[in-house]
Write a structure and sequence with these properties.
The complex is a heterodimer. Chain A is mainly α. Chain A is built from 22 helices and 2 strands. In chain A, helix 6 packs antiparallel against helix 8. The longest helix of chain A is centred in the middle third of the chain and has 34 residues. Chain B is mostly helical. Chain B has one domain. The chains are: A mainly alpha, B mainly alpha. At the A-B interface, helix 6, helix 7 and helix 8 of A face helix 17, helix 18 and helix 20 of B.
Chain lengths: 520, 500
């Protein structure tokens, strides 16, 4: 496989193709009749996924640095380059994104009935924007993608969302923007520091990484600016209030993308930028206390609030707050296991929570309600649906053999040595997760059927099976044989752990192998 | 072959754009004196005005190509790239306003070809402001511009609001001119000159005396009125609201541009030695304008008033660009003026199309569901609003980013934090407009069918929206020009180029 990929020069064009293909797809989408918009979008996202699969083989697991780099000058006077790259942190985020998108499109086939062209166009733009966030290796480009991606999601929630969609959409937008604007100032401050240190302005990630230790007294402020942007996106405990609103109001595909991909951008940002730039600040006792404290509160609080939600979508939304608390804990523990575990949870959560939202969406399309109390006894009526829902919920709980387990186990294992108390409390989150999900399953699938409307429900159609089965397969695969995935994230996780070691300074570019070609 | 601006013929060449435009004004005046009756004549005057603006643009291009690098000290007219950038912006915005007004005036039954004469006269004044190297020339230009714009503000004779706008603008404007003139007098008293380069040379010798400081303060107040910065903004909402929409767009863009270009030259050439004196004042006014403009805009029901307050906030951003006192700041100022001007012209033109006869009340509730029937209009308006918000992918973002870079580059990120927080607040009133257009259903099925732009307005909006998006993605070209303009201004006042 890798020989074949090399022979077609895969590494040279893949990242550009991933970003540009969806944008190019806007042209046929705009020209074709509105009825065919969904087929076009599905075809494009599928092609995108197939193309991106090559990364799995072409990726060199031993290399901790950026691979497949492409660079083109954008604003040379400011050292801004369109600089893309991919390492073990972003590889799975990219694959997750390209993998989820066709399913999200397929899941929208019946749900989206008006202004389809606009909808699928926004989906494609969103795909491009999200990949840009994970691939950008230039801080300016990263910021642009990070913000631009807001717009499609804002419209998807605001136009095709539920009853209270306008409130949810503007809340989502303003929360995210509030964080990221300060990040922009921080990026500029760092750029001038880079410029002073090296004599040439640059927004390149590696240049920032090298210049970051020289920030001196500004470091806590800069870290705070980055951390705020990412903490809102994650969302960490006190900043999570936009999430339930956005999830509940968004259409199914919007919720799926939010949960599976958008939230990961926050944790990705911590892993890639906030902590490696300022390990001295991030891992100082005070900040650690705050972050780990908030993570643990988020784990327990999210789980407890999920327990009492009458709306099943809200339940899953709060479960995300809880799960991402584990990711934050793993990032801050900064051991190899905990970081790998955090990445595994990010992938596993992407699969299982995405699938949960998809299944809820299918239920909603049948009954037009998301109240848990409106269901009951579905297992006998729609057995296939129920089986898949059970598997997905178990994966989300973290049952061994499914995707959720390995990540949470690694995080707890890796964090226990550093924060025994916090890890101990976090463990209860696993138990609570079992409680709220199993209880919800019981009320939806197993209790006595009290609503006669439920007796006539159709089971999953072939299309719907195609939507969820890939995710189920992914959950089982990750649960049973995570080795190849862990192998591929190993080097990058290791680099993160090294970068945040006290006293460690990023070696100069020469020691890191060939530097990206500087266009001048 | 560069001309010599110290000879009378050279001065005429240096003033070629102004001369051409003045001639165009006179020609149109002659034409309309016997062709004055119907819409056809009004339209003809409009097209003639466009021709005049085009001629002035060509002349500008020629003058810029042939102007001497260093005209020597003591000239009344600047021939640096900064002037040409400012003049270009003014001509661009005047042309945009004319294009927007062509259909609007007919729809509102305001057909009188003098409109275009006044508009061009104001543009002549603005060009003088942009090229003034001397405070007297600056004042003359400002008055020429102001008097014409007073009349334009009251152009809708049938509307009491328009009359109120004109009267308010006139009274406040006269007041502001008084401040400005007194400031000029004090600066003259302190230095014995009205030439900015000579004033700058005087001040660079030593500390500013009390008289010079007073003069600087009064000048700042006078400009503060013209750019509608807080606390000198009180007139702006009513005047912007009452004036015909194309005039509002003209005031919000071209007038502001001319005033800022002149202010930049006064501060960077004349009072460059006093940077530390004016920086705190500029920072204070900028902060107040950003905070108050954005907060009050949140509670506006009428879109026009909302844009008026937003333009007050934008005056704050522009002042923040002046604050660093560096070439980067001037470059950011000019670039932001381009971005803001292009965006605002398009926004006001669209707003003019959204209203229908006596359009005082284009509110959020009026335009719900616009995107379903008028997708391109809604798209254009959304692009403008996102650009005003400073969203990535639009020219407004690049402008704001450049301002932030200038502020941060001067070593103190505090004002940058104010700028971004103010931008965040502005999302609170720009986004609901987009929401209304895209996310709320229309009140009735056919309610938007008559909201159309005239062909010329459509052209202006299409070009502007393309510019918003293209320069938002590829700003390198305009940035090179503004960098050069900033370099020329700062060089002529003898400051060292800092660079990014």
């Amino acid at each position: 496989m890798s020989e074949f990929l090399t022979s077609i020069g895969y590494g040279g064009w893949i990242l550009n193709t991933l970003i540009l293909l969806p944008l190019a797809g806007l042209v046929p989408l705009a020209l074709a009749p509105a009825r065919q918009a969904k087929q076009i979008a599905l075809a494009l996202t599928l092609v995108e996924f197939v193309v991106s699969l090559g990364l799995w083989w072409a990726f060199d697991p031993a290399d901790p640095l950026m691979q497949f780099q492409v660079v083109a000058p954008w604003l040379p006077a400011w050292g801004i380059n369109y600089l893309l790259g991919l390492d073990g942190l972003s590889l799975f985020m990219v694959l997750l994104t390209t993998g989820i998108m066709p399913l999200a499109v397929l899941a929208s086939f019946n749900y989206i009935a008006r202004r389809e062209r606009l909808y699928y166009g926004l989906m494609l733009a969103l795909l491009s924007g999200m990949l840009g966030v994970f691939l950008a290796q230039d801080m300016f480009v990263f910021y642009v993608f990070w913000e631009v991606m807001l717009i499609p999601m804002y419209f998807i929630i605001g136009i095709w969302g539920g009853h209270n969609r306008l409130y949810a959409a503007i809340k989502f937008f303003i929360y995210t923007m509030a964080g990221s604007l300060l990040m922009l100032v921080a990026i500029l401050v760092m750029m001038f520091e880079v410029s002073r240190a090296t004599g040439a302005p640059s927004f390149a990630y590696e240049a920032f990484l090298r210049a970051a230790p020289g920030m001196g007294a500004l470091a806590p402020w800069l870290f705070a600016a980055f951390a705020l942007a990412f903490a809102i996106k994650v969302p960490m405990f006190p900043f999570h209030t936009w999430l339930p609103d956005a999830h509940v109001e968004a259409p199914t595909a919007g919720s799926v993308i939010l949960a599976s991909i958008l939230l990961k951008m926050g944790t990705y940002g911590f892993l890639r930028f906030a902590v490696p730039f300022f390990p001295g600040v991030a891992l100082s006792p005070v900040v650690t206390g705050i972050v780990v404290g908030c993570a643990v509160i988020g784990i327990v609080y999210g789980a407890l609030v999920a327990l009492v939600q009458p709306d099943v979508k809200k339940l899953v939304a709060y479960s995300s707050v809880s799960h991402l608390g584990f990711v934050m804990l793993g990032i801050w523990a900064a051991t190899l296991q905990s970081v790998q575990g955090a990445l595994m949870i990010m992938i596993g959560h992407g699969l299982s929570t995405g699938a949960l939202f998809l299944l809820i969406g299918m239920l909603y399309e049948r009954r037009h309600t998301r109240e848990i109390s409106a269901y009951g006894g579905l297992a006998a009526v729609i057995p296939v649906f129920s089986l898949i829902l059970v598997i997905t919920a178990l994966a989300s709980i973290g049952l061994p053999g499914l995707s959720g387990f390995i990540g949470e186990f690694l995080v707890l294992l890796g964090s226990f040595g550093r924060y025994p108390w916090a890890t101990g409390i976090a463990t209860t989150g696993v138990i609570f997760a079992a409680a709220y999900l199993l209880w919800a399953l019981q009320r939806i699938l197993f209790n006595r059927m009290e609503h006669p409307e439920n007796a006539g429900l159709r089971d999953l159609s072939a299309r719907e099976l195609w939507v969820v089965l890939p995710l189920v397969a992914g959950m089982v695969w990750l649960g049973l044989y995570p080795r190849p995935v862990l192998d591929r994230m190993d080097a990058a996780a290791n680099r993160y752990v090294q970068l945040v070691q006290p006293g460690f300074r990023a070696p100069p570019a020469a020691a890191l192998g060939p530097a990206p070609r500087e266009p001048r | 072959m560069p001309f010599d601006p110290s000879t009378p013929a050279g001065v005429m060449l240096a003033l070629l754009p102004e001369v051409i435009l003045s001639v165009a004004v006179l020609v149109i005046l002659v034409v309309i004196s016997w062709r004055h009756a119907g819409p056809v004549d009004s339209r003809r005057a409009g097209w003639l005005a466009l021709v005049g603006l085009g001629g002035a643009a060509l002349a500008l291009w020629w003058t810029a190509a042939h102007a001497p690098e260093d005209p020597g000290i003591g000239q009344m007219i600047a021939t640096d790239a900064y002037r040409f950038a400012g003049s270009g912006l003014i001509l661009l915005m005047a042309a945009g306003s004319v294009l927007g007004a062509l259909g609007y005036l007919e729809r509102e039954h305001l057909v009188a070809p003098e409109f275009y004469v006044l508009l061009l006269l104001a543009a002549v004044g603005m060009l003088f402001m942009a090229s003034a190297e001397d405070l007297i020339v600056l004042f003359l230009g400002l008055e020429t511009m102001s008097v014409a714009v007073y009349v334009l503000a009251g152009y809708n004779r049938g509307s009491a609001y328009s009359a109120e706008a004109a009267l308010k603008y006139f009274l406040i404007g006269a007041f502001a001119s008084g401040f400005l003139l007194y400031g000029i007098a004090l600066a003259y008293g302190a230095t014995g000159s009205t030439n900015l380069l000579l004033i700058g040379a005087q001040f660079s010798q030593g500390q500013l005396g009390l008289m010079a400081r007073l003069g600087l303060g009064l000048l700042l107040i006078g400009f503060g009125f013209k750019i509608a910065a807080v606390p000198f903004h009180m007139w702006a909402p009513d005047v912007y609201d009452g004036a015909p929409t194309p005039v509002t767009g003209y005031m919000a863009t071209a007038v502001k541009t001319a005033a800022f270009i002149a202010l930049g030259r006064v501060l960077y050439t004349g009072f460059q030695a006093a940077t530390l004196d004016w920086r705190p004042i500029v920072m204070g006014i900028a902060t107040l304008s950003m905070v108050l403009g954005n907060l009050v805009a949140l509670s506006q029901g009428s879109l026009k008033r909302m844009l008026a307050y937003s333009s007050i906030a934008h005056a704050g951003y522009l002042l923040a660009a002046l604050w660093p006192g560096s070439p980067l700041g001037i470059s950011a100022l000019v670039f932001y003026l381009l971005g803001y001007g292009v965006t605002s012209i398009a926004a006001f033109t669209i707003l003019g199309g959204l209203g229908r006869g006596g359009e005082r009340d284009v509110t959020l509730a009026e335009i719900t569901g616009l995107a379903e029937t008028r997708p391109w209009l809604a798209f254009g308006f959304a692009a403008c609003l996102l650009s005003l918000l400073g969203f990535p992918g639009t020219i407004g973002f690049m402008g704001k980013w450049y301002i932030l870079a200038a502020i941060v580059g001067s070593g103190s990120p505090l004002l940058a934090v104010v700028v971004v927080l103010a931008s965040l607040v502005s999302a609170g009133y720009y986004l609901p407009v987009i929401m209304a257009m895209y996310m709320r259903p229309a009140r009735a099925p056919l309610v938007h069918w008559d909201r159309i732009l005239s062909g010329t307005a459509r052209l202006a909006v299409a070009v502007a929206v393309l510019a918003i998006l293209l320069f938002g993605m590829w700003p390198a070209g305009p940035l090179r020009l503004t960098d050069r303009a900033a370099g020329s201004l700062v060089q002529s006042s003898g400051q060292v180029i800092l660079g990014p």
